Amino acid sequence: MRHRTLGRATAAALGAALLLTACGGSDDDGGDDIVGAENKNSASPSAPAEEDPDAPAFDFPDDLEADVEPADTGDGKKDAVLRDHGYALSAMVESYGQQKATANFEDYWQDPAYTNYVKDFERFADEGQRIAGTGRYFDREVKQVKDGSALVVFCEDQGDGYVVDAKTGKRVGSGGGENSAVLRLYRQTLTRTDDGTWVVAESDWTEGDGTCR
Predict the structure, then answer these.
(1) Has residue 16 got a pLDDT over 90?
(2) Three-state DSSP class for 66?
(3) Model confidence at 175, in pLDDT bands (50, 70, 90)?
(4) Angle between helices 113-126 and 76-98 (to 10 degrees)
(5) d(CA 42, CA 48)
(6) Are 92 and 117 in contact, with CB atoms under 8 Å apart?
(7) CB of 112 within 8 A of CB of 201?
(8) Percent of the chain, pLDDT > 90?
């Protein structure tokens, strides 16, 4: 299930050097506490999940697209986490495209990660800019599900993301593109709400991590 909702959809098309303070902040210790992250290539490719008729609708500018790799583990708990995690990524990019926290973002994020991202949405709005292009999220894996909390590890490719003027849609600067790919390894903690929805509460990343290729 690749999230391409409303034609040109989801997840962060973040050009090189764009999100320096968002995403909960960088973790430069290499992420040694992620057990098994180095074994991401050992598993067989997942079969595409069926489209969820209850999936939220996302509203993206025509020049913004996201690619969230499908994840179907066969484990009901993990698949529920990954489903909502995919929606959370989509909601994040939607919000960057609209320069504000959208209703979907409100549904799938909570503090402290929520506030960190909202500050970045506001920064783009203040500068009259937004993101465009394509963001890719892959190798999404649930490392732990316990007592209403889950840890998801995944990779982001920012190489095809760039910044545009919010009014004209014209590209700002020269960031993004094939030769400026930025790979990040993310660790996000999700919390299960009373209605059963998994929401992102904490987000940390390591830039240029060798795990993501």
Answers:
(1) no
(2) strand
(3) low
(4) 20
(5) 18
(6) yes
(7) yes
(8) 58
DSSP 8-class letter at 56: P
| CA atoms of 27 and 6, how far apart (whole Å) | 34
The C-alpha atoms of residue 95 and residue 103 are separated, in whole angstroms, by 9
Q: How far apart are CA 61 and CA 5, in angstroms?
A: 11
CA 86 to centroid of chain Cα atoms: 7
**Which residues have C-beta within 8 Å of that of residue 174, sequence separation ≥ 6?**
none
Tell me, what DSSP letter sits at residue 196?
A: S
Query: From the CA atom positions of the chain, what is the Rg in Å?
Result: 16
Residue 185: other Cβ atoms inside 10 A: 24
> How many other CB atoms are found less than 10 A from the CB of residue 31?
17
| Max Cα–Cα distance, the chain, nearest Å | 47
201 pLDDT more than 80:
yes
Residue range 140-157: mean pLDDT, rounded: 95
Give the HSE-up count for residue 195: Cα atoms under 13 Å, Cβ half-sphere: 5
Tokens of 100: 């504000």
Alpha-carbon distance of 62 to 51, in angstroms, equals 22
Question: Length of the chain in residues, anyone?
Answer: 213
Three-state DSSP class for residue 116: helix
Amino acid letter, residue 38 = E
Q: What is the DSSP string of 39-51?
A: GTTSSPPPPPPPP
pLDDT of the residue at 178: 47
